[in-house]
Specification:
By secondary structure, this protein is of the alpha/beta class. The protein is 43% helix and 14% strand. The protein contains 15 helices and 13 strands. Strands 11-1-12-13 form a 4-stranded mixed β-sheet, with helices on one face. Strands 7-8-9-10 form a 4-stranded parallel β-sheet. The structure holds ligand V47 and iron/sulfur cluster. Ligand V47 is lined by residues 83-85, 122, 154, 185-188, 190, 225, 227, 229, 260, 262, 264-265, 269, 302, 305, 332, 336.
Length: 382
């Protein structure tokens, strides 16, 4: 019996697409031109079959999730990204929130005796929350709960922190690592190409600065994620350029764990006139990312932004991770118009969501070590 990928190879008449399908079957890297062609003419079923082939070769039916919670220290921000529905400019800081170190520590303590493995800390760029402030926060969290993996600060926050403290990226990263920082989340990448970045996020760190921070973290033995904010004013060429820069850095360092495409949501921001992408485009993007980023081990659908049912669908288009149980503290997407107004899912709900599409739910830690395989389970202890 021939497999789905052989059927696609045999039935595709376009010679360029057929050649891409053969490359995928042989494990040969596709070129930028191939990637662009997939965006331009690859049907949903064509790219989906190729992406699913890669996904199952790497992970079988395993679908990872983790138990985490988010802390958002502030939504006050010195920057003014056009797509952001979340931040309040520093000039209007009375409209935003600012958490003290003890308030954040109280959030951590509220998870005492709960089996969470990760805290994800990301927020706006507040001029008063500096290196000293965040080092103290990291030290206090690590000493209160040493088993909790601290994944914190986008390259945008780090770039601002280091520049203000007059530290090089190496010096700053080393200090934060010593204080307890273990991984970096993937935010702030948006679209790297200056043609788009200048229009949507012109005043924050540029592509080179973002990549340098992740490269430095990797050299210090830390892992990180990478995102791409898509589905607004960028072209297919800009998407390929973005993924190309990530693929090149990953060839050098192997420090990225996961690629996370973030669908642009258009409520309550300066880009509300820009329509959102269709679900078909979303799934094609996931699939093409899985095919193009051959050196990224994982592809994540962030369900609070995509919606839980679309995240479930994405498991047929290359995705092998649907993030975590999260909790009720993530505001960035509900403020931008996501259907998920209260982004919480219990472990039982996540496991059911994955089981419903015949995949195997596996709880992981931040670095993808398996904590529990739920495939033959029995949800007695969730
Ligand atoms: O960089 C802001 C995005 C990101 C909108 O590493 C928006 O595990 C869509 O990076 N529509 C921050 N997206 C969140 C982030 C993240 C999320 C989950 C997991 C991880 C991880 C990282 O949120 C920003 C920006 O790209 N964002 N506004 C919006 N209107
Ligand atoms: Fe600030 Fe981040 Fe919003 Fe940009 S996306 S305005 S850096 S909080």
């Amino acid at each position: 019996m021939s497999s789905a990928i052989d059927t696609i190879i045999n039935s595709t008449t376009d010679t360029a697409l057929k050649a891409i399908a053969k490359k995928v079957k042989d494990g040969t890297r596709i070129s930028n031109e191939d990637g662009l062609l997939l965006f331009e003419i690859g049907s949903l079923s064509f790219v989906g079959t190729l992406a699913n082939f890669i996904r199952e070769k790497l992970h079988g039916n395993k679908t990872f999730f983790n138990r985490n919670f988010h802390i958002e220290p502030t939504n006050v921000c010195v920057f003014s990204c056009a797509f952001c529905s979340y931040s309040r400019l520093y000039a209007h800081k009375e409209e935003g929130w600012e958490l003290s170190i003890s308030q954040m520590l109280d959030i951590v303590k509220s998870y005492d005796n709960k089996p969470v493995t990760e805290v994800h800390i990301v927020g706006g760029v507040h001029p008063k929350m500096n290196m000293a402030y965040f080092k103290e926060l990291l030290q206090k969290i690590s000493s209160h709960r040493p088993d909790l993996h601290i994944k914190a600060f986008t390259a945008v926050e780090l770039d601002y922190m280091f520049r203000k403290a007059k530290l090089t990226v190496e010096e700053g990263m080393l200090q934060l690592k010593e204080a307890g920082l273990q991984s970096l989340p993937g935010g702030g990448a948006e679209i790297f190409h200056p043609e788009i970045r200048e229009k949507i996020a012109g005043d924050k760190v540029d592509a080179e600065g973002w990549l340098k921070i992740h490269e430095t973290a990797h050299h210090l033995g830390m892992h990180s994620n990478a995102t791409m904010l898509y589905g607004h004013i960028e072209s297919y060429e800009h998407r390929i350029d973005h993924m190309h820069r990530l693929r090149e850095l990953q060839d050098k360092t192997s420090g990225f764990n996961t690629f996370i495409p973030l669908k642009f949501r258009n409520a309550n921001n300066d880009m509300s006139h820009v329509p959102e992408s269709s679900i078909t485009e979303d799934m094609r993007l996931y699939a093409i990312a899985r095919i193009y980023l051959d050196n990224f081990p994982h592809l994540k659908a962030y369900w609070p932004m995509l919606g839980r049912h679309n995240a479930q669908l994405s498991l047929a288009f290359g995705v092998n991770d649907i993030d975590g149980t999260i909790d009720d503290s993530t505001k960035i997407y509900s403020m931008a118009g996501s259907e998920e107004q209260t982004p919480t899912m219990t472990t039982e709900e996540l496991v059911t969501l994955i089981n419903q599409v015949k995949r195997k739910p596996v709880e992981r830690d931040t670095l993808y070590n398996v904590i529990k395989d739920y495939s033959s389970n029995v949800l007695s202890e969730v």
